[in-house]
Amino acid sequence: MKTRWMMLAGLLPVTLAGGCGSKAESGPTIEQAWVRLPAVPGRPAAGYATIRGGGGKFSAMLRGATSPKAERIELHVTMTMDDKAVSMKPIAEIPVPPNTTLYLKPGSAHMMVFGVAADLKPGGIMPITFQFDSGTKTFDAKLVGAGDPAPE
What we know:
By secondary structure, the protein is mainly beta. 12% of the residues lie in helices and 45% in strands. The chain contains one helix and ten strands. It is globular.
């Protein structure tokens, strides 16, 4: 019994802190998510989004993303080396400071979407669940063909 009480008492500060936030401190929001489908079937797609940091004092951390329409999604960053060579590397997380906007965009931080479902077509949508340290948020990303312009 003592162990159960100690365990519940340990959760009390987390519960109270979680309940004290105002609507302005609701965490990050997702806008304008889209995925550029691969030109060659079987190759990865690229995902982009606008993420607005919530109000308050604390940064959120984007730790990843998932979708039922992909085998896996990785966060990546594009790097330029020697002003010529461009490469990408996976990253574990991206900070989203409060009251700021993070742009996952071509040539910068973005998502690589591996194992894209064969039934996805330009003009459709793909649900993406963004994983933050504070919880998850799902958004329907617009699907764009490999040679098509980005959505506005």
